[in-house]
Design goal:
With 250 residues, this protein is α/β, with parallel strands linked by helices. It contains nine helices and eleven strands. Bound molecules: NADP nicotinamide-adenine-dinucleotide phosphate (NAP). NADP nicotinamide-adenine-dinucleotide phosphate binds next to loops.
């Protein structure tokens, strides 16, 4: 994701002033533009967070749940806004996000696609309007993805829960599970090949069903969303911001 962000940033006239990777990266010292296929940018990849943030208005983080806290702390210390798409964050990291939002503007989204944000809003309203329809979510990703369900599926579960109180996620079904409980949101993960990311929310009634699907066709979708968020966040006062606010034009 980092390389995709750099490639789109360079193409879109955003100045890349730093590039941070793990201390174990084989790419340390290399020019980030060369590595990303964006041409030489004169920015060497380093592992030191403070140096990487020098001169930045905003840092875009797509790393790991383990790396996230240090990057966020570094951004808060340097007074640099943070946009993060890193998934699987622990509750302690989300709490740190709230604490850091007292010092800097922060925007974290488990899915940076504007389309998925719109889908979540549609799901919330559809679940509320449909009453007792059964809700099932199927997500599909490439065979290298290590976690399930996806952060986006979790976000869609939360959207459905906001639409109708009392719904509870049930992950996969196997064996003698009994008849379906009306309060269930079934969540299912498909893994295969090079699927970038598909999510379908099935809303099933007695006589009809609605299927709401989002298909990501390229990882550039997420990088473009993060860059749009970075532009939007730059210059904002400290606080925790949501992608939905950006979309609403707040
Ligand atoms: N929100 C969204 O829309 C969205 C979209 C796609 C992906 N994601 C999430 O974004 C994250 C990254 O995804 P990816 O596919 O780009 O994964 P990836 O290819 O594994 O990239 C993770 C990067 O983080 C680096 N890193 C690890 N530890 C670090 C540290 N301590 N300090 C600085 N950098 C560190 C890794 O470096 P090394 O290779 O040296 O370890 C690697 O370059 C994941 O959490 C993924 O789920 C979110």
């Amino acid at each position: 994701m980092g390389l995709t962000v750099v490639r789109l940033a360079a193409a879109g006239g955003v100045e890349v002033v730093g590039a941070i990777d793990s201390g174990a990266s084989p790419h340390l010292g290399r020019d980030i533009g060369d590595l990303a296929g964006a041409g030489t940018l004169g920015v060497a990849i380093g592992a030191d967070i403070a140096s990487g943030l020098l001169g930045a208005d905003v840092v875009i983080d797509f790393s790991t749940a383990g790396a996230f806290d240090a990057i966020l702390r570094g951004a808060a210390r340097s007074g640099v806004a943070l946009v993060s798409g890193t998934t699987r964050l622990e509750p302690a990291s989300l709490a740190l996000l709230d604490k850091s939002a007292l010092k800097i503007p922060v925007l974290w989204a488990p899915n940076m696609s504007v389309g998925v944000q719109v889908l979540a809003d549609v799901v919330r309203r559809a679940v509320a309007a449909l009453g007792d329809y059964d809700v099932e979510i199927v997500e599909a990703h490439h065979n290298q993805k290590t976690d399930a369900p996806s952060g986006t599926a979790t976000m869609l579960v939360q959207a459905a829960e906001r639409g109708r109180a009392g719904l509870v996620a049930v992950h996969g079904r196997e064996g003698d599970v009994g008849t379906r409980n009306p309060t269930e949101i079934g969540v299912h993960a498909v893994r295969g090949g090079g699927i970038v990311g598909d999510h379908t929310v099935h809303l099933v009634g007695q006589f009809d069903r609605i299927e709401l699907t989002h298909r990501a066709m390229s990882r550039e979708l997420f990088a473009a969303g993060a860059l749009r968020a970075a532009r939007w966040l730059t210059g904002k006062s400290a606080g925790r911001y949501e992608l939905a606010q950006m979309i609403a034009g707040d």
